[in-house]
Amino acid sequence: MIIGYARVSTQDQNTDFQVDALEKAGAEQVFKEQMTGKLKERPELNQCLRMLRRGDTLIVWKLDRLARSLKDLVEIVQDLNDREIGFRSLTEAIDTTSSGGRLVFHIFGALAEFEHDLIRERTKAGLQAARARGRKGGRKPSMSMADIRKATAMLSDPLITKKEVAEFFRVSRTTLNSSLSRLQSS
User: Fold this and answer.
1) Claim: this prediction has a pTM higher than 0.85
2) Which whole number is the average pLDDT over 83-106?
3) Among all residues, which ones are annotated catalytic?
4) Which of 14, 72, 132, 165, CA to CA, is 20 to 30 A from 183?
5) Interior angle at CA 67, CA 62 and CA 68, nearest 5
6) Which residue, among 97, 63, 100, 61, has the nearest Cα to 81 in the 3D structure?
7) 70-82 and 43-51 helices cross at what angle (nearest 10)?
8) Comparing C-alpha atoms, which of 139, 138, 143, 136 is closest to residue 179?
9) CA-CA distances (angstroms) from residue 109 to 85, 113, 124, 160, 185?
10) Which of 3, 43, 38 has its CA nearest to residue 19?
11) Residue 111: how many CB atoms within 10 A of its CB?
């Protein structure tokens, strides 16, 4: 069975053009979604992927309609491949049911992995350079040392609870506790 997936990013757009192209290419059923591709959870795509069975083919009008990034695209198509489901993209003329299409997709996968490794290397180098300049990474503490000392003074009163102190400083009890332990360790 050939299953199509069509997606547009906004409510102002419609999927008619994509649906027509998918049906012309043989799609027996088309899942339509009006949602940005940046969202991980796309109900129609999830339902489409669950419906596909061994021997089926998922068809899309264009690669960017299916995935948020090259990495996501490779993951989705690899999952389809593992389940023995074909994949076709009409615009890019990619068809993983053929040996040439699988080759192209393996090249995409290698490029995605290469891109991921480059990003990781640049991040590590940036963190090392920052450390060499004496900068520490991570978020700034929610409570300053002065706030922690004030909180400690407030907590010396047995009528004041940690919950009340946390609410006063607009932090959670967990943050208050970790801040208090930070004062003790310094």
Assistant:
1) no
2) 86
3) 9
4) 132
5) 120
6) 97
7) 20
8) 143
9) 17, 6, 23, 58, 47
10) 3
11) 12
Helix, strand or coil, per DSSP, at residue 78: helix
Q: What's the Rg (C-alpha) of the chain?
A: 26
- For the chain, give the number of residues: 186
DSSP letters, 23-58, are HHTT-SEEEEEES-TT-S--HHHHHHHHH--TT-EE
Return the structure tokens found at 106.
Answer: 């393996």
Q: Which residue has the tokens 């027509």?
A: 20
DSSP 137: -
Structure-token pair, residue 114: 């290469």
According to DSSP, residue 140 is labeled P
pLDDT tens for 125-172 read 988 888 888 887 777 888 999 999 999 999 999 999 999 999 999 999
Terminal-to-terminal C-alpha distance of the chain? 66
